[in-house]
Design a protein that fits this description.
- The chain is of the alpha/beta class and 226 residues long.
- It contains eight helices and seven strands.
- The protein is globular and about 45 Å long.
- The N and C termini lie far apart (58 Å).
Length: 226
Protein backbone atom coordinates (compact mmCIF):
# COMPACT_ATOMS: atom_id res chain seq x y z
CA UNK A 1 0.00 0.00 0.00
CA UNK A 2 1.34 3.44 -0.93
CA UNK A 3 2.18 5.75 1.97
CA UNK A 4 2.14 8.87 -0.24
CA UNK A 5 -1.25 10.26 0.93
CA UNK A 6 -0.23 9.97 4.59
CA UNK A 7 3.16 11.53 3.94
CA UNK A 8 1.54 14.44 2.13
CA UNK A 9 -0.96 14.95 4.95
CA UNK A 10 1.81 15.02 7.57
CA UNK A 11 3.73 17.50 5.44
CA UNK A 12 0.64 19.73 5.17
CA UNK A 13 0.21 19.65 8.94
CA UNK A 14 3.86 20.54 9.54
CA UNK A 15 3.77 23.45 7.10
CA UNK A 16 0.44 24.66 8.48
CA UNK A 17 1.85 24.74 12.01
CA UNK A 18 4.96 26.53 10.80
CA UNK A 19 2.88 29.13 8.97
CA UNK A 20 0.84 29.76 12.11
CA UNK A 21 3.99 30.34 14.17
CA UNK A 22 5.46 32.50 11.39
CA UNK A 23 2.42 34.77 11.37
CA UNK A 24 2.74 35.36 15.09
CA UNK A 25 6.48 35.88 14.75
CA UNK A 26 6.03 38.41 11.95
CA UNK A 27 3.52 40.37 14.03
CA UNK A 28 5.90 40.28 17.00
CA UNK A 29 8.87 41.56 15.01
CA UNK A 30 6.92 44.28 13.25
CA UNK A 31 5.49 45.46 16.58
CA UNK A 32 9.08 46.19 17.61
CA UNK A 33 9.77 48.00 14.33
CA UNK A 34 12.18 45.29 13.16
CA UNK A 35 12.83 44.72 9.46
CA UNK A 36 13.61 41.03 8.91
CA UNK A 37 15.27 39.31 5.99
CA UNK A 38 15.81 35.63 5.30
CA UNK A 39 18.85 34.76 3.18
CA UNK A 40 18.66 31.49 1.24
CA UNK A 41 21.14 29.90 -1.15
CA UNK A 42 23.01 26.75 -2.03
CA UNK A 43 26.17 25.88 -0.05
CA UNK A 44 29.25 27.79 -1.19
CA UNK A 45 27.40 30.76 -2.66
CA UNK A 46 29.25 33.21 -0.42
CA UNK A 47 26.22 33.81 1.81
CA UNK A 48 28.13 34.09 5.09
CA UNK A 49 30.75 36.40 3.61
CA UNK A 50 28.08 38.66 2.12
CA UNK A 51 26.21 38.73 5.43
CA UNK A 52 29.38 39.56 7.34
CA UNK A 53 30.02 42.54 5.06
CA UNK A 54 26.36 43.56 5.27
CA UNK A 55 26.35 43.49 9.06
CA UNK A 56 29.58 45.49 9.21
CA UNK A 57 28.18 48.20 6.98
CA UNK A 58 24.88 48.41 8.84
CA UNK A 59 26.71 48.70 12.17
CA UNK A 60 28.91 51.45 10.69
CA UNK A 61 25.76 53.38 9.77
CA UNK A 62 24.55 53.25 13.37
CA UNK A 63 21.81 50.70 12.71
CA UNK A 64 21.29 48.06 15.38
CA UNK A 65 21.32 44.76 13.53
CA UNK A 66 21.11 41.24 14.95
CA UNK A 67 21.77 37.98 13.13
CA UNK A 68 20.68 34.37 13.43
CA UNK A 69 22.57 31.77 11.43
CA UNK A 70 21.44 28.20 10.79
CA UNK A 71 23.70 25.25 10.15
CA UNK A 72 23.65 21.48 10.54
CA UNK A 73 26.64 21.53 12.90
CA UNK A 74 29.38 23.83 14.32
CA UNK A 75 29.16 27.50 15.18
CA UNK A 76 31.84 28.52 12.68
CA UNK A 77 29.55 30.87 10.79
CA UNK A 78 28.37 32.62 13.95
CA UNK A 79 31.99 33.23 14.95
CA UNK A 80 32.70 34.75 11.56
CA UNK A 81 29.63 36.98 11.65
CA UNK A 82 30.38 38.17 15.18
CA UNK A 83 33.48 39.92 13.82
CA UNK A 84 31.10 42.52 12.39
CA UNK A 85 30.26 43.77 15.89
CA UNK A 86 26.62 42.70 15.64
CA UNK A 87 24.98 40.33 18.15
CA UNK A 88 24.89 36.87 16.55
CA UNK A 89 23.39 33.54 17.57
CA UNK A 90 23.92 30.15 15.95
CA UNK A 91 21.00 27.79 15.39
CA UNK A 92 22.07 24.16 15.12
CA UNK A 93 19.38 22.28 13.21
CA UNK A 94 20.55 18.79 14.23
CA UNK A 95 20.43 17.49 10.68
CA UNK A 96 17.44 19.44 9.38
CA UNK A 97 18.07 21.02 5.99
CA UNK A 98 16.22 24.26 6.78
CA UNK A 99 15.24 26.65 9.54
CA UNK A 100 11.70 26.78 10.91
CA UNK A 101 9.72 29.63 12.46
CA UNK A 102 9.75 28.00 15.91
CA UNK A 103 13.57 27.94 15.87
CA UNK A 104 13.65 31.67 15.13
CA UNK A 105 11.18 32.49 17.89
CA UNK A 106 13.11 30.40 20.41
CA UNK A 107 16.46 32.02 19.64
CA UNK A 108 15.09 35.55 20.00
CA UNK A 109 14.54 35.01 23.72
CA UNK A 110 16.76 37.23 25.83
CA UNK A 111 17.45 39.82 23.14
CA UNK A 112 16.22 43.39 23.62
CA UNK A 113 14.03 43.57 20.54
CA UNK A 114 13.12 47.18 21.23
CA UNK A 115 16.76 48.06 20.54
CA UNK A 116 16.93 46.07 17.30
CA UNK A 117 16.33 47.68 13.91
CA UNK A 118 17.16 44.87 11.48
CA UNK A 119 17.20 41.09 11.92
CA UNK A 120 19.17 39.03 9.40
CA UNK A 121 18.52 35.29 9.20
CA UNK A 122 21.04 33.14 7.34
CA UNK A 123 19.25 29.96 6.39
CA UNK A 124 20.85 26.55 5.93
CA UNK A 125 22.58 26.15 2.57
CA UNK A 126 19.86 24.43 0.52
CA UNK A 127 17.76 25.49 -2.47
CA UNK A 128 14.86 23.07 -1.90
CA UNK A 129 13.52 22.79 1.67
CA UNK A 130 13.76 26.48 2.72
CA UNK A 131 11.35 27.49 -0.05
CA UNK A 132 8.43 25.98 1.90
CA UNK A 133 9.14 27.51 5.31
CA UNK A 134 8.06 31.02 6.20
CA UNK A 135 10.28 32.45 8.96
CA UNK A 136 8.26 35.59 9.57
CA UNK A 137 10.56 37.61 7.32
CA UNK A 138 9.65 40.78 5.47
CA UNK A 139 11.95 39.99 2.57
CA UNK A 140 13.34 36.67 1.34
CA UNK A 141 16.66 37.04 -0.45
CA UNK A 142 17.94 34.35 -2.82
CA UNK A 143 21.69 34.35 -3.39
CA UNK A 144 23.51 32.70 -6.26
CA UNK A 145 27.14 33.00 -7.27
CA UNK A 146 28.49 33.36 -10.77
CA UNK A 147 30.28 30.04 -10.25
CA UNK A 148 27.00 28.09 -10.06
CA UNK A 149 25.88 28.47 -13.67
CA UNK A 150 23.37 30.71 -15.41
CA UNK A 151 20.64 28.06 -15.31
CA UNK A 152 20.46 27.80 -11.51
CA UNK A 153 17.13 29.73 -11.32
CA UNK A 154 15.63 27.37 -13.90
CA UNK A 155 16.77 24.28 -11.98
CA UNK A 156 15.39 25.51 -8.64
CA UNK A 157 12.39 27.67 -9.59
CA UNK A 158 10.53 27.34 -6.26
CA UNK A 159 13.17 29.09 -4.17
CA UNK A 160 13.61 31.95 -6.64
CA UNK A 161 9.89 32.33 -7.28
CA UNK A 162 9.25 32.56 -3.53
CA UNK A 163 11.97 35.17 -3.03
CA UNK A 164 11.59 38.93 -3.25
CA UNK A 165 15.17 39.85 -4.14
CA UNK A 166 18.11 38.10 -5.77
CA UNK A 167 21.76 38.85 -5.00
CA UNK A 168 24.38 37.64 -7.45
CA UNK A 169 27.65 37.05 -5.59
CA UNK A 170 31.32 36.64 -6.53
CA UNK A 171 30.97 38.85 -9.60
CA UNK A 172 34.74 39.36 -9.58
CA UNK A 173 34.95 35.76 -10.84
CA UNK A 174 32.45 36.18 -13.67
CA UNK A 175 35.02 36.60 -16.42
CA UNK A 176 37.19 33.74 -15.16
CA UNK A 177 34.12 31.47 -15.04
CA UNK A 178 32.95 32.67 -18.46
CA UNK A 179 29.59 33.52 -16.92
CA UNK A 180 26.93 34.94 -19.22
CA UNK A 181 25.53 37.65 -16.95
CA UNK A 182 22.75 38.58 -19.37
CA UNK A 183 21.54 34.97 -19.46
CA UNK A 184 21.66 34.83 -15.66
CA UNK A 185 19.51 37.97 -15.37
CA UNK A 186 17.13 36.71 -18.04
CA UNK A 187 16.66 33.41 -16.23
CA UNK A 188 15.93 35.18 -12.95
CA UNK A 189 13.31 37.37 -14.64
CA UNK A 190 11.79 34.34 -16.37
CA UNK A 191 11.14 32.74 -12.99
CA UNK A 192 10.27 35.91 -11.05
CA UNK A 193 9.36 38.77 -13.40
CA UNK A 194 10.25 42.16 -11.95
CA UNK A 195 12.53 40.73 -9.26
CA UNK A 196 15.06 43.23 -7.92
CA UNK A 197 18.59 41.95 -8.57
CA UNK A 198 21.89 43.12 -7.08
CA UNK A 199 25.33 42.22 -8.40
CA UNK A 200 27.94 42.03 -5.63
CA UNK A 201 31.47 40.99 -4.79
CA UNK A 202 32.36 40.65 -1.12
CA UNK A 203 36.04 40.49 -2.05
CA UNK A 204 36.18 43.77 -3.96
CA UNK A 205 33.20 45.47 -2.31
CA UNK A 206 31.45 46.03 -5.64
CA UNK A 207 27.70 46.50 -5.30
CA UNK A 208 27.66 46.22 -1.51
CA UNK A 209 26.76 49.84 -0.81
CA UNK A 210 23.80 49.69 -3.20
CA UNK A 211 22.67 46.47 -1.51
CA UNK A 212 22.92 47.98 1.98
CA UNK A 213 21.19 51.18 0.79
CA UNK A 214 18.27 49.00 -0.28
CA UNK A 215 18.09 47.32 3.15
CA UNK A 216 18.13 50.66 4.95
CA UNK A 217 15.37 51.98 2.70
CA UNK A 218 13.25 48.90 3.39
CA UNK A 219 13.82 49.19 7.14
CA UNK A 220 12.85 52.86 7.19
CA UNK A 221 9.72 52.10 5.20
CA UNK A 222 8.62 49.57 7.84
CA UNK A 223 9.91 51.33 10.93
CA UNK A 224 7.40 51.69 13.77
CA UNK A 225 7.82 54.69 16.11
CA UNK A 226 9.11 53.56 19.51
Amino acid sequence: MSMTPRVLEIRRQVLSKNDEIARGLRDRLRAHGIFTLNLVSSPGSGKTRLLEETLRRLVARGICVHALVGDLATDNDAQRLARSGAPVRQILTQGRCHLEAAMIAQHLDGWDLDACDVLCIENVGNLVCPSSYDLGEDVRVALLSVTEGEDKPLKYPAIFNSSDVAVITKTDLAEACDTDMRALHDNLQAIRPGMRVFETSSRTGAGLEAWVDYLVEQWRAREVPR
